[in-house]
Specification:
4 strands; two-stranded antiparallel ribbon
Length: 139
C-alpha cells in the first residue's frame, strides 16, 4: 500500500499520530509520518475477497480494504462466520413485519385485558387472546 490509503486508514493514521506526539514529543511530524507509513505499508495486506451473495445468487470479487470500508459505512449485521445481513428497515422484510404485527397485536390484547378486573369474563378472553398472540410471535 503506497501513499494511497483509504479514508479509514487516514483516520487511523491521524489518531495514531496524535497519540504518538504525546508519547514521543521529541519526534517531528515528518518523522512520525515516515514511521507510521513504514509500519502501515509493512502490515496492511489488501488481499482478495470473494463475496458470495446467495440471496441474489451473485459472486463479487473485492479486496479487504473495500470490505472494511463497507462494514464501517453501512454497519451491516455481521455473524461470527462472516455472514453479512442488511439491517432491519433497509429492505422490505416480510417475516420481520409479520412477527412485529403479532407482537403489536399481543400488546393491544394485553392493554385491553388490563382494563378489566382480574378473573372477569372479558379479562380471561383478552388474556387467552394475548397468550395465543404470544405463541404466534415466538413460533
Amino acid at each position: 500500500m503506497s501513499e494511497n490509503y483509504s479514508k479509514i486508514f487516514n483516520k487511523y493514521k491521524e489518531s495514531l499520530k496524535r497519540n504518538m506526539k504525546i508519547l514521543m514529543p521529541e519526534l517531528g511530524d515528518s518523522e512520525l509520518d515516515r514511521a507510521i507509513d513504514w509500519s502501515m505499508n509493512r502490515r496492511i495486506k489488501n488481499n482478495l475477497v470473494i463475496i458470495d451473495d446467495n440471496y441474489h445468487n451473485k459472486i463479487t470479487e473485492s479486496n479487504l480494504i473495500k470490505l472494511y470500508e463497507y462494514i464501517q459505512e453501512r454497519k451491516p449485521i455481521l455473524t461470527s462466520y462472516g455472514c453479512l445481513f442488511s439491517r432491519h428497515g433497509e429492505r422490505p422484510n416480510p417475516l420481520y413485519e409479520m412477527i412485529q404485527e403479532f407482537a403489536d397485536r399481543r400488546n393491544n390484547f394485553k392493554k385491553k385485558m388490563l382494563q378489566y378486573p382480574k378473573g372477569s369474563e372479558e379479562y380471561n378472553r383478552y388474556n387467552l387472546n394475548q397468550l395465543v398472540a404470544k405463541v404466534d410471535t415466538n413460533a
